Amino acid sequence: MAKLFFSYSHADEALRNKLEAHLSMLRRQGLIESWHDRRITVGSELDASISRQLEVADVILLLVSSDFLASEYCYSKEMMRALERHDSSEARVIPVILRPCDWHSAPFGKLLAAPRDGKAITMWPNEDEALTDVAVKVREAVKELGARQVPGGVPQVPSAPKGGAAFATASPLAAPERLRSSNLRVKKEFSELDQDQFLHDAFEYTARFFEGSLGELQERNADIKTRYQRIDARRFVAHVYRNGEKLTECSISLASLGRRDSIAFSHGASASVNGINEMLNVEHDSQSLYLKPLGMSSFGQSRDEKLSHQGAAEYLWALLMERLQR
């Protein structure tokens, strides 16, 4: 069983919890035993506990974000020691890019990062897909640890020194490490305020995303002109023209069709409620909030998606672009 160590900033604890859930199959199959600083017991010395686990880890995950890079402890103590053990082939270091940040020039920038292409997890349309990709990379690394075994699958052990035993006897004063499960996540509660704020933040993110994407679309295509209009705090419209002729347009708004707001998409810039072509609602599981499409534009085929702010913006942008890409 490989020992896995999480090096991360506490600002990213929610993403660490999600990643740990995606690694659960490796744990159930007896392939990994994971550790992070939330497993330090009351009364234990923090630095000593972290250092001890870092020294015995087979796989070290650097959960990279701006907060990770800004943390003196994560950067100077955990990351630098992890790279020393990686360079001496004592452990495998895997940078996991959680959020966009300037990480390529960091000391670990030479390593192949996860998820695929080093694209930050929060920038994927579907975070679960990104986290699954990380889990696959971890599984591959754990399999490669089999190279440390002799033929026949028996792990190598240190040779006994002359006149001595193969293993040093533990000090009688050393307290045994506390054994416990890695399944310690508890269900999180999300208030109506949490859900409303998540929705409004998603709407504002989508508005900025559309404005920037329209500008880039126009710059890359000489015959294309675009127009972005912010109507009010709850609605914006987008138009795309080719040689002066309108090709496509849409309206995106915060719509109140029931007790809660939703993000509504219409292919018409002045569409009424009856003209809505897709809606995104806020839902949650036991650990996080996400946006879920009703699937109106795809006959229900998208209803199982759990979208981040980035994912929601990409999803709605694809609806606008589909008329340009037929």
UniProtKB/TrEMBL annotation:
SUPFAM superfamilies: Toll/Interleukin receptor TIR domain. This is Toll/interleukin-1 receptor domain-containing protein. Pfam families: TIR_2. InterPro entries: TIR_dom (IPR000157), Toll_tir_struct_dom_sf (IPR035897). Keywords: Receptor. Transmembrane segments: none annotated. Signal peptide: none annotated. The keyword RNA-binding does not apply. Residues 1-142 form the TIR domain.
